[in-house]
Write a structure and sequence with these properties.
The complex is a heterodimer of chains A (about 160) and B (about 280). In chain A, about 35% of the residues lie in helices and about 15% in strands. In chain A, helix 2 (about 90-95) crosses helix 5 (about 140-155). Chain A has two domains: about 1-80, Roll (Ubiquitin-like (UB roll)); about 90-155, [2Fe-2S]-binding domain (DNA polymerase, domain 1, Orthogonal Bundle), CATH 1.10.150. Chain A has a five-stranded mixed sheet with strand order 2-1-5-3-4, with helices on one face. Chain A has helices spanning about 25-30, 90-95, 105-120, 125-130, 140-155; strands at about 1-10, 10-20, 50-55, 55-60, 70-75. The N and C termini of chain A lie far apart (about 50 Å). Chain A is globular. Chain B has three domains: about 5-50, Uridine Diphospho-n-acetylenolpyruvylglucosamine Reductase, domain 2, CATH 3.30.43; about 55-170, Uridine Diphospho-n-acetylenolpyruvylglucosamine Reductase, domain 3 (2-Layer Sandwich), CATH 3.30.465.10; about 175-280, Enolase-like, domain 1, CATH 3.30.390.50. In chain B, the strands form four sheets. In chain B, strands 4-5-10-6-7 form a five-stranded antiparallel sheet. In chain B, strands 11-12-13-14 form a four-stranded antiparallel sheet. Chain B has a three-stranded parallel sheet with strand order 1-3-2, with helices on one face. In chain B, helix 9 (about 225-230) runs antiparallel to helix 10 and helix 10 runs antiparallel to helix 11 (about 260-280). The longest helix of chain B is centred in the last third of the chain and has 20 residues, at about 260-280. The chains are: A alpha+beta (about 160), B alpha+beta (about 280). Chains A and B meet through strand 4 of A and helix 2, strand 3 and helix 6 of B.
Chain lengths: ~160, ~280
């Protein structure tokens, strides 16, 4: 039995028919073709599937799709400008070499986005805490932390 | 994975009626444990009844006593402006539960009803002598949290009952408490954990409350150690005895996260360290 859900996705109202057992990540990837959100462990351990729901970072692999009705969802596809330019945060990840295979990157960026939206000048400790639920298995976290610091200071300087 | 139906009742009565009507149905709160268990095939519910749309269940009320709705998220515990002062122990434990993505969705009631021996919020709530409000279509009852846990994954709730609120009383001014948790990394489930509360009058312990996680089939009050400390002047020698007593009074298992021996050891060490931290001793 399918039910209709209406929600705001990256600022656009969308409608999708979903089954009871489907998850938010299934809606994003399978129904809407937004494959920027990655599925890693499917158990809420790795954070690759992180998206922002009503301002808070969540694991889309554990989020029942029907619960998304009426909510605001932000995915990695919603970060670029209308002219398809990368956001300051995304560009900082590129500039700092904070990406190796890239699979964890969308989740990392959404976790950081949720952090910076509520705390524009986080300390290193706060950055590390915000990224506790995001695993990178390629390289490590030093460049990622550097990228977040750079994005934070660049965002301060914006008019 | 087998499919299931998903209902989103808007009121408690509606939720309880659905539960009664549909055999094999389960309540779902934040889903951070349940969704994993379903995907892993450990649980095969025919129907999930979501509690997220029931507004009354997700609020915190503080006037004298503290009432926490079962659907309050862990993040909402942490950012409540008053709870940090009124029940710091609970907020400290909430900060150590999982990672931000989990805390943003996981709920107080879900953490308790999942009945994991390692449930991070169970320990502070046991130590604070919380009461669980349980409702069914036929009535309401308040149960001491200690009687709520019956085994791994098993609470005292019957199929027609639901946990709606947690009540705690504010602690006296000469009371201090700590939460200590051992995990491989910060977001891990506990290898072992201890919550400890001491009410002191000068050097004498008037009241001691302790609970340990991941060391028994349920989150465990360490009542033997509590009784041992109460009425005594606390000294490092006494803390050593409490450490040994704590290690001996738990019943851990060995699993992927740790061995039985290490869990016993950690619980003892944390009891002593907790006493030292509360009393401001240096253990060096």
């Amino acid at each position: 039995m399918k039910k209709e859900i209406l929600f705001s996705l990256n600022g656009i109202e969308v409608s999708v028919f979903v089954k009871g057992h489907e998850r938010l990540i299934d809606v994003l990837r399978n129904h809407l073709g937004l494959t920027g959100t990655k599925e890693g462990c499917g158990q809420g351990e790795c954070g690759a599937c992180t998206v922002i729901v009503d301002g808070r970072a969540v694991n889309s692999c554990l989020y029942p799709a029907l619960e998304i009705s009426g909510k605001n969802v932000l995915t990695i596809e919603g970060l670029q400008s209308p002219e398809h330019r990368l956001s300051v945060l995304q560009q900082a990840f590129v500039d700092c070499g904070a990406i190796q295979c890239g699979y964890c990157t969308p989740g990392m960026i959404l976790s950081v986005k949720a952090l910076l939206d509520s705390n524009s000048k986080p300390t290193e400790k706060e950055i590390r805490e915000a990224l506790q639920g995001n695993l990178c298995r390629c390289t490590g976290y030093v460049q990622i932390i550097t990228a977040v610091k750079q994005a934070s200071s660049q965002l301060q300087e914006l008019p | 994975m087998k499919g299931f139906d998903y209902f989103q009742p808007q009121s408690l009565e509606e939720a309880l009626e659905l539960k009664k009507k549909i055999p094999g149905s389960r309540f779902i709160a934040g889903g951070t444990d349940l969704m994993v268990q379903i995907r892993g095939g450990e649980l095969k519910p025919s129907t999930l009844i979501s509690l997220r749309s029931i507004r009354d269940l997700s609020s915190i009320e503080i006037n004298g006593n503290i009432r926490i709705g079962a659907m309050t998220t862990v993040t909402d515990l942490i950012y409540n402006p008053d709870l940090e002062h009124k029940a710091k122990l609970l907020v400290d434990a909430a900060r150590r539960l999982g990672c931000p993505q989990i805390r943003n969705v996981a709920t107080v009631g879900g953490n308790l009803c999942n009945c994991s021996p390692c449930a991070d919020l169970a320990l502070p709530l046991l130590v604070l002598e919380a009461k669980a409000r349980i409702k069914s279509l036929s009535g309401t009852q308040d149960v001491p949290l200690q009687k709520f846990f019956e085994g791994p994954g098993k609470s005292c709730l019957s199929p027609d009952q639901i946990l709606t609120d947690i009540f705690i009383e504010p602690v006296s001014n000469n009371t201090k408490a700590v939460f200590l948790k051992k995990g491989r990394v910060k977001m891990d489930l506990a290898i072992a954990s201890v919550a400890l509360l001491l009410e002191m009058e000068e050097k004498t312990c008037r009241k001691a409350r302790m609970a340990a996680g991941s060391v028994a089939p349920v989150p465990l009050r360490l009542q033997k150690v509590e009784v041992f400390l109460e009425g005594k002047a606390l000294s490092p020698e006494l803390a050593d005895l409490a450490q040994r007593m704590a290690s001996e009074s738990v019943a851990p298992i060995s699993d992927v996260r740790s061995t039985e021996e290490y869990r016993r050891h950690i619980v003892g060490v944390y009891v002593k360290r907790g006493i030292a931290q509360i009393l401001g001793w240096s253990l060096d």
